[in-house]
Amino acid sequence: MSNSLLLILLFLLVPVLHAADAGAETEVSSHSHLSQEGTAPEIRIAYPWPNEAVGSVRSVFVYGSVSPSSGTLTVNGSSAALTGLGQFLQVIPVEPGTFTIRAEFLSGSEVVAATRAIVVSPPPGPPPPGKAAVMPLEPKADLLLKSGDWVRVAAWAQPGGAMAFRIKGVVEDAPMAETAGPDPGVYFAEYLKDPVRTGGYYVGAYQLKGTDRAKDREIEFSFKHPAFGKAKAASPGRLTADPGFWRVGQVSARLAGTRSGSDAGQLYFFQQGTRFLIDGKAGERWRIRLSGTEEAWIDEKNVELRPEGTPPPSAKLETIVVRSSDSHADVEFTVGAPVPAVVSQEDGVVKVSFYDTREHVNWIVYDDNDSFVREVRWRQENSDKASAFIHLREGERLWGYSLRRTGERYVLTLRRAPRAGRRSLFEGLTVVLDPGHSGPDLVGIGPLSTREQDANLSLARRVRDRLLSEKASVVLTRETASEVVPLTRRTEIAVENKADIFLSLHFNAFPPGIDPLAEPRGFSMFHHQPQSVELSRELQLSYRDRIPLASNGMRFADFHVIRMTEMPSVLLESAFIMLPEQEALILDPKFQDKLSHAIVEALWRFLRKNLREPMKVAPAVPQGPRPKPGQAAGPGTLKR
Q1: Fold of 315-416
Q2: pLDDT at position 37 over 70
Q3: Which residues of 436-470 are buried (b: 16+ CB within 10 A; e: fewer)?
C-alpha cells in the first residue's frame, strides 16, 4: 500500500474530537472533512487568519488544504505542492498595506478560488525625500526620573540633516547624532530582525542633574535639512524630572513578576505584601530601587503605593534555623520586614539575598539529624543587601526550592531528590502533565485545521496512561478539550500537587516572516531552571533516538510554565503542526505512541540517575530474599 493511501485511510478512520465531549478518551483529529468523490472542489486556507496584522515582514507562509486531494493549486501565481491528504504550504512574498492572498485550485475541469486579506506593516525607516519630516520614536512612554538618570531620545528624519532636542526648562538644543539605523532586534528565537541601514535614524541623550525639574514636559525635536527645509515634532512620551522623588510600594497581587528594565525580560517574582522603595517610572511600570547598583521594574497594576512619608523598608537578617526531614530541609530566616527576597543557585550553592537589609546574624541553629544541608554562611554584600549561602552535603542534589514569608520569618524549602519506589522507579512520584493552550483560541493550527490544544491533550493522555502503568501518580492541568485553564493556573496546579516532575506538551509553529522550509524542522526541549537541564537533555536524546524528525536542539527559554523553581520542568515541542507532513504524523496514533514512549523512557533514565535509594524498612516477620538496596526494575511497559 502506498504511503499516501495509508495516510488517507488513517485520517478517515480518526474520529473528530468534539469540544463538548468532556470525558471521552478520543484521538486528536483534523476539524476539516475531506470531500467525497464527485463533490465540488474546495480550498480551505487555515493560515494566515483573516485580516491578521503580520507586522513588517517580507514574506508569509500560507497553508491549508484542498479536496479532492489531487489537482493543481497555485497561491498568488506560484505552484503549490499537495500531499496525499490534500495539504499545502507555500511561502509567498508580500507588500506593505492590505495584502490579498489568492489561491486557485483546478480539479478536473473545475476551478475554484479562495482569498484571504492580511495587513502588512511598512518597514521602519526615514520619511521619503521631499518636505522635511520628523517621526519621533523615543521615549515612547511617559517618564518619571531622578537626577543621574538618562533621558534617551530617537527619531527618524530624512538622511543628511541635523537634529536637536529640547526639554523646556531642562535642556535646550541638545545635538543628536545621525546613524545608519537602529541595531537589529530579536524577532523570534535566534532569528534577528532585518536592520534598517538607510540612514536618517537620529539618536541623543541627556543625563539629568540635581537642579533639573520638569513636570509633564514635552520632548521636542527640531530638524533642518539642506534640501528639504525644517520640521518639528514631539516625542510620544513626556518627562517629569523630580530629583527628590521616592515612594514606598507594596505588592498587591498574590505574586508579581518583575523585569530587568522597563521593556526588558523577566527577573524576579515578589510575594504579596513585599515592600520596596520606588524612585522612577516608565509608562505603566514602576522602578524598584533594590540597591545602589540593582533595580527591578514592576507593573503599576500590581503595586499599592503606601501613604507619602512612609519610611523606606528596612530590616535585619538575624537568627537562621535549619529544620530537616527525609524529603526536604526548611531554612528559616528571621527578617523583621517584608523586604524583597531573591533566591539563586551559584555553583551548587543556594543563595538567598534580602534587600534593604543589614546582617545581624548571632545564631545559626542546625538540625542534629540533617543529612542534606552542610553549612549556612552569610555576607553583607553592600549597604542594602545581606545574603545567606546554603551549602549542601557532597553528593546531594537540589530537586527544587520555594520561598515564602510567614510572620517575621522567610522560610526557604529545599527539596531533596525523591526516593525511588520499591516496585517501580515511578512509584510514589507525582508527574503533572500540561496539555498546552486551551479554550476557543486557536494558538496553533495545522493545514487540515488540526487544533494544537487537541493534539496536546491527546498526547498528554497517552503519556498519562504509560505513567499510570508504571505506578506514578499523574495530574493533568486540564482533562477535556472544552476546559479553559489560564497560564498562571497551570503552574499553580503543579505546586498545589507537590509535583516531582512538570511537563508542558506542545506542537510547534513559527510566526509570520520566518521561512519554515528553509531548514529541517522537528522537535525541541525548553528549560529555565538549573535543576531542569538534565531532564531536558534526557528528553532531547530520547527523541533523537526514537522520533523520525530533525532535532532543533535543547534550549533555555523564558516561558512562564517552566520558570517554576519547585521541581524539574520542561516544555516539549514535539513536532511542527504547521508542516503538512508533520501534521499527518501528529494525526497518526502510532506516532503519538512513539512520542509517549520516548517521553517516559527519558523520565526513566533521568530518575534512574537522580533518585535516592528506597527507604529501608525492616520486615516485621522473616521473609524470603529481598532485592539489594538501590535496585529498581526498569519500566515494565517499556521494551528496550
Answers
A1: Immunoglobulin-like (2.60.40)
A2: no
A3: bbbeeeeebbbbbbbbbbbbbbbbbbbbbebbeeb
Q: What is the pLDDT of residues 203-254, one digit of tens each?
A: 999 999 999 999 999 999 999 999 999 999 999 999 999 999 999 999 999 9
In CATH, the number for domain 134-241 is 2.60.40
DSSP state of 148: T
The Cα angle at residue 35 between residues 34 and 40, in degrees rounded to 5: 145
- Count of other CB atoms within 10 angstroms of residue 501: 25
CB atoms within 10 A of CB 526: 23
Render 423-460 in DSSP notation, one character per residue: S-TTTT-EEEEEE---TT--SSB-TT--BHHHHHHHHH
Task: Count the alpha carbons within 13 Å of 370 in the hemisphere toward its beta carbon.
Answer: 23
Task: Quote the Cα angle for 115-118-124, to 5°.
Answer: 150
CB atoms inside a 10 Å sphere around CB 330: 16
Structural domain boundaries in the chain: 41-120, 134-241, 247-305, 315-416, 430-610
Q: Does domain 41-120 have CATH number 2.40.50.140?
A: no
CB 265 within 8 A of CB 558: yes
User: Cell numbers at residue 311, please?
Assistant: 519610611
Question: Domain 430-610, CATH 3.40.630.40 — does that match?
Answer: yes
Peptide bond into 48 cis (omega under 30): yes
Asked if omega into 139 is within 30° of 0 (cis), the reply is yes
Distance between CA atoms of residues 308 and 482, nearest Å? 48
Categorize the per-residue pLDDT at 407 as very low, low, confident or very high, splitting at 50, 70 and 90: confident
Question: Per-residue pLDDT for 617 more than 90?
Answer: no
Angle at CA of residue 270, ends 265 and 271, nearest 5°: 150
What are the pLDDT digits (tens) for 249-288?
A: 999 999 999 999 999 988 999 999 999 999 999 999 999 9
* The CATH number of domain 247-305 is 2.30.30.40: yes
The position carrying cell 535639512 is: 225
CA dihedral 411, 417, 418, 420 (to 10 degrees): -170
Domains 41-120 and 315-416 share a fold: yes
Helices (H) and strands (E) in the chain, counts: 6, 43
Distance, CA of 379 to CA of 510 (rounded, Å): 46
**pTM of structure:** 0.89
Return the amino acid letter for 555. R
Which burial class, exposed, middle or buried, applies to 128 when counting CB atoms under 10 A from its CB (0-12, 13-18, 19+)? exposed
Nearest to 581, CA basis, from 504, 520, 513? 520
Pairing of strands 275-282, 239-241: unpaired
For residue 530, count CB atoms less than 10 angstroms from its CB and return exposed for 0-12, middle for 13-18, buried for 19 or more: middle
